[in-house]
Amino acid sequence: MTIFGPAIDVRPLFPRERQALLDLLRALGPGDWSKETICPGWDVHDIAGHVLNDYLRRLSGSRDGYPGAVFADDETLPAYLARTNGEFVAATRQLSPRVLIELLEHLGPRLDAVWAAHDLEAPAGLNVSWAASDVDSPAWLDIGREYTEFWVHQQQIRDAVAMPGATQPELMAPVPYLFARALPHTLRTIERPEGTSAELEVLGPAGGRWSAVRRDGRWRLAEAAGEPAARVSMDQDVFWRLASRGITVAEARERSTSSGDPELTAAMTTLLAVVA
């Protein structure tokens, strides 16, 4: 039994999400590019540069097999990513907004082609550590993780410039679906009897309902049987922001409802779908 639940194929959505991003960036005024975002120390220009880094990193690694930057001595994965992401963003500050847009437009379809060549059920090019640290990820989860990365960064730009969008259910629905894959990992340290379930409900047109069930000594995404031991419900906007560090755990708890096992509900409202 898989711990990740049913596969999802987000590959057809990459061009649509990217077009929404390009339309957004082209609509920005000169002053918009320097507006601060939720990402500490990064403005709108920096977020766009970071997305470009993601494109280049996956093309170089997943398509070309190039290892890229090496880890420093005793450097953790979060520290490595913070360092290398910061180095690239600092370099892209030399690029004009027009050049950033042209590079994203040029490289995006090449990355789409990389994903199109993947067998979704094959092993991932990069494991999704926030979904499981001891089980290899399938390719569909790795590709989906990249989609959530691009979508969230677009929303961070939209928040900074007060231009909402890209929240149509067809574009947004994969994000909570994929972020919910973090639920079993979130509960991993909590022991409960076999068959215990915890239900997460995300409200809104792009939402859904998912259960983590204790099976064979670990939590798995599966259909729950009977009443869950714990239930947490929150709006889709609250959920994606919680999962991507856009709001604090305390803010998420204030804007959600919980019932049942307090240890399980407390853990569920700490869910992170980013490397931490």
Automatic annotation (TrEMBL):
InterPro entries: DinB/YfiT-like (IPR034660), Maleyloyr_isom (IPR017517), MDMPI_metal-binding (IPR024344)
Gene Ontology MF: a single term: metal ion binding
Signal peptide bounds: none
Transmembrane segment boundaries: none
Domain annotation Mycothiol-dependent maleylpyruvate isomerase metal-binding: ranges: 16-157
Protein name: Uncharacterized protein (TIGR03083 family)
